[in-house]
Amino acid sequence: MSALLEVSNVSKVFSMGGLLSRHQVRAVEDASFTLEADRPEIFTIIGESGSGKTTLARMILGLELPTAGEIRFRGKTVSHRVSRAERLEFMANVQPVFQNPFEAFNPLKRIDRYLSSTARRFLQTSDRAAIDRAMDEALVKVGLSLAEVRGRFPHELSGGQLQRCAIARALIPNPPLLIADEPVSMVDASLRMAIVNLLKSLRDDFGVSVIYITHDLATAYYISNRIIIMQKGRIVEMGDARTVLENPEHPYSRLLKASVLSTEDAGAGKLATDPEMVRTASALAGAERSRLAERPDGRLVRVYEGA
């Protein structure tokens, strides 16, 4: 079984502060996982703000260079500077979908101009019919059509339509891997499941693997094959999505699940989380020596020396 993406012991450290108060901040520490080429899946990265999930995604996309470790796509390293041709080939195969569709498009530029420039760049053609065909095929995959969006500006579309256009733009070069960073967080609640189901359809119907970055455990449970849970730059739990989310083992994973609002206590005003659980998760986040240990059910859980 060949690997589509290999993330091997990847870390990222940022230098912060001024000349006299310079210090280092660990954003990601020793992250490792693999996506197989012949097994499309939705691989979810879960964590609160500041957990390192977006930094990890940016390193996979080549927008940040790892401080340590290596990232390989189809056996070729992407975690160092490459030629323009190699970069273009990589971008055609690994496409991003960003959080805010309203920031992904210039409000003064028509949507189809974005789509056509993407088709022209990655398909390396100036044939108008071929470009239109590629645009329409990508839009049909997300439930739209070229006729619906041609000539329209971003403000003329709903948030859900705009995010689907962003996904269609990413699909034009037929990439085997999408990196979707919080793709539903800026979309109305009524439209979130439409986007989530779209990602599921891309996996099931078109064989596209998706790295889905979120803090939403409900959507992660619904569509994910595997998940990793991150806290302060570290992977604290990793494995089959339902196994981990139904019975989380790491204290931080349990804290995340306990923090999800339930309709059972609606109106009762019970929003407090067990303070002991919070203290334990916080204390372990600062522990210096730890490792990921495999459990009988196949998941990996971070354990701490002396804990």
Please give a structural write-up:
Helix 4 crosses helix 5, helix 4 packs parallel to helix 7 and helix 7 packs parallel to helix 8. The longest helix has 18 residues. This protein has a single domain, classed as P-loop containing nucleotide triphosphate hydrolases (Rossmann fold, 3-Layer(aba) Sandwich), CATH 3.40.50. A hairpin with a 5-residue loop joins strand 11 and strand 12. The strands form 2 sheets. It has an 8-stranded mixed sheet with strand order 6-7-8-3-9-10-12-11, sandwiched between helices. Strands 2-1-4-5 form a 4-stranded antiparallel sheet, with helices on one face. The chain has 307 residues and is an alpha/beta fold. The protein is built from 12 helices and 12 strands. It is globular and about 65 Å long.
**Poorly predicted runs of 5 or more residues:** none
What does the oligomeric state look like here? single chain
Sum up the overall morphology in one term: globular
Helix content: 25-40%
CATH topology, anyone? Rossmann fold
Quantity of strands, as a count: 12
The SS-based structural class is: alpha/beta
C-alpha Rg (nearest Å): 21 Å
The sequence of SSEs as H and E is: EEEHEEHEHHHHHEHEHEEHHHEE
Q: In order across it, which strands form the biggest sheet?
A: 6-7-8-3-9-10-12-11
**Roughly what is the average pLDDT, rounded to an integer?**
87
User: Regarding CATH, which class?
Assistant: Alpha Beta
Named at the architecture level, the CATH assignment is 3-Layer(aba) Sandwich
Amino- and carboxy-terminal Cα gap: 37 Å
The CATH superfamily name is P-loop containing nucleotide triphosphate hydrolases
